[in-house]
Specification:
By secondary structure, the protein is mainly α. It is built from two helices and no strands. The termini are far apart.
């Protein structure tokens, strides 16, 4: 009777140890995955912020150059005796600057939100 009880306790103990060790291993793997994902997201976020910032700077530069180009065109038109364009010579720089400022501000405000979005990673096999 004592032998059967000892074997039963040993079997129950062995099953308990195996289930606890499997549970611990699964938990440890999840912790490692969490740490890996944390660093991946942290560094990825920084890269996406830089990417979004560069995009905003490029767009702002493009809009600024466009405003200056339009102003030069208006100056040329007014100096070649197209006096009807004088009103545009005065108002276009103001509206162009305002539009550029608004677009830049909207872009700067949206940078954290755009960077926080997960970008789908393209497998290396699909890149041509």
């Amino acid at each position: 009777m004592k032998k059967r009880l000892f074997i039963l306790i040993a079997v129950i103990l062995a099953i308990s140890v195996m289930s606890v060790s499997a549970s611990y291993a699964a938990g440890k793997e999840n912790f490692g995955t969490k740490v890996k994902n944390f660093w991946k997201n942290l560094l990825g976020y920084s890269a996406r912020v830089t990417e979004e910032s560069a995009s905003i700077v490029a767009d702002t530069t493009k809009n600024g150059v466009s405003a200056v180009t339009n102003e030069v065109k208006r100056v040329a038109e007014v100096t070649t005796e197209d006096v009807a364009k004088t009103k545009e010579l005065i108002t276009e720089p103001i509206t162009g600057t305002a539009e550029t400022t608004v677009k830049a501000a909207e872009g700067v405000i949206s940078i954290p939100f755009e960077a926080a979005k997960e970008k789908a990673e393209v497998p290396a096999a699909e890149i041509k």
